[in-house]
Amino acid sequence: ASASIGVTGLGVMGRNLARNFARHGYTVAVHNRSAGRTRALVQEFGHEGEFVAAETAAEFVAALERPRRLMLMVQAGEATDAVIEEFAPLLEPGDMIIDGGNAHFADTRRREAALREQGIHFVGVGVSGGEEGALHGPSVMPGGSVESYAVLGPMFEAISAKVDGEPCATHIGADGAGHFVKMVHNGIEYADMQLIAEAYDLLRQVGGYGPAEIADIFREWNQGRLGSYLIEITAEVLGHTDAVTGGPFVDVVVDRAGQKGTGRWTVQTALDLAAPVTAISQATFARAASGQTALRAAYRGLPGGTTPVLSRTEAARFASQVENALYASKVIAYDQGWSMIQDAAKEYGWDIDLAAVARIWRGGCIIRASFLDRIRAAYAQDPALVSLLTEKDFAQEITDAQVPWREIVAMAARRGIPVPAFSAALSYYDTLRAERLPAALLQGQRDFFGAHTYGRVDKPGMFHTHWADADRPETDA
Ligand code: NDP
């Protein structure tokens, strides 16, 4: 036994992670259901480090130093359960099974509990950054036991992306916490992408800018507070010319957005937690709506607003308003993500360092952005911060963005341009800052039809009004 870690499932992600470990000096046992991939990996990349190729499960397990560290990089769901069932009987107490796939955190909690009975550490790890990240440095979000992180932490930190010399890996919390946080990362990613797409749509339809000009606007924004990987690649995509038509690439792409499901998981989970991640959910529904071909055909042609294009001078001012709206909405979307993590931490008993989450998302992952440094600083200063908007600099920025943010959403409504994420972010802001909400009326309605009772502002307790019987007073519920 000579390998510090074993990777089974040598697809796109597994093989790059195995190479990343080997490049950092770890001896890596490699295994795949079909042995061809194992041989190909060693043949092509064997010179990058120390690999031990294993053809059978027994050979693979025998190649691992104790406690054994066995990383699965297979499809989430049934494949993961099948591979766990295959390997768990070959392991001993103290050994570790690491699941680096995109598992649902509830599955990770279930698997962790089951394997804990056998004394095996099951470590669900969120890995972000795709194929390139896996090879050159992903953002790594491990859950599982503290004991497992003591062993695995240094290895994850070694292979992770680094920002200012700090690794983009940290122990997130027990059992499914790592996969949960990875899921929220993807939810925030959906919101960020949708907000950027709405900004583009406004700049094009109202501002009258062409895709190449908008690419330049995004390049400029990328130098400022919006600086991020997503803004950077948006400029690349918008600046790209289609080889066939010679026109803008974005104009030849079918306008139906796909999704692999992690955004949907975020929304489904948010409903269970009663976490109002409205910008994230609107972004997810925007993708769903784009794919509703029959509905779109049914609605197409119905009246909307008018969209006269602005003059060039007006457009420049407009672009700066859009930047404000985008930034303010982005702060809200991220705030929603962090709040959802806080809600889950309460629900599942996780002790999550919210500053560390921001730190490890500064590099390696899709939402990497300079602005995460400030989120980190905010939570470092006050680990129990309820919202980013209670931090004075964020509060000031939102205050400064007020007027343009509202103007953009109002203008979009008048002109019939869909801005589901912008408007959800603004409504969220207005909902939470409101002195009083019409939820009071909802409680009245609920008490009327279902005797659901209500609280009063002037005394403690719960009450019910006898709606059908004017002579009977309100009673304590
Ligand atoms: P690939 O399709 O490239 O590879 C899948 C691997 O899983 C193959 O090695 C395959 O083996 C193996 N496998 C599938 N089913 C079984 C099974 N029943 N028993 C044993 N082995 C099985 O997938 P990826 O590398 O893209 O993804 C792997 C995991 O990483 C997934 O959970 C994915 O969601 C996650 N992930 C992917 C990211 C990405 O950007 N692609 C980013 C972050 C996470 P065989 O060669 O024999 O078919």
Automatic annotation (TrEMBL):
InterPro entries: 6-PGluconate_DH-like_C_sf, 6PGD_dom2, 6PGDH_C, 6PGDH_Gnd/GntZ, 6PGDH_NADP-bd, 6PGdom_BS, NAD(P)-bd_dom_sf, Pgluconate_DH. It comes from the Bacteria. Keywords: Gluconate utilization, NADP, Oxidoreductase, Pentose shunt. NADP(+) binds at residues 9-14, 32-34, 74-76, 102. The active site is at 182 (proton acceptor), 189 (proton donor). One of its GO terms (molecular function) is phosphogluconate dehydrogenase (decarboxylating) activity. The keyword NADP applies. GO terms for biological process: D-gluconate metabolic process; pentose-phosphate shunt. Substrate binds at residues 102, 128-130, 185-186, 190, 260, 287, 446, 452. Its EC number is 1.1.1.44. Pathway: Carbohydrate degradation; pentose phosphate pathway; D-ribulose 5-phosphate from D-glucose 6-phosphate (oxidative stage): step 3/3. Transmembrane segments: none annotated. It catalyses: 6-phospho-D-gluconate + NADP(+) = D-ribulose 5-phosphate + CO2 + NADPH. SMART domains: 6PGD. Pfam families: 6PGD, NAD_binding_2. Residues 178-468 form the 6-phosphogluconate dehydrogenase C-terminal domain. PANTHER family: 6-PHOSPHOGLUCONATE DEHYDROGENASE. Catalyzes the oxidative decarboxylation of 6-phosphogluconate to ribulose 5-phosphate and CO(2), with concomitant reduction of NADP to NADPH. Belongs to the 6-phosphogluconate dehydrogenase family. Homodimer. This is 6-phosphogluconate dehydrogenase, decarboxylating. It comes from Streptomyces roseirectus.
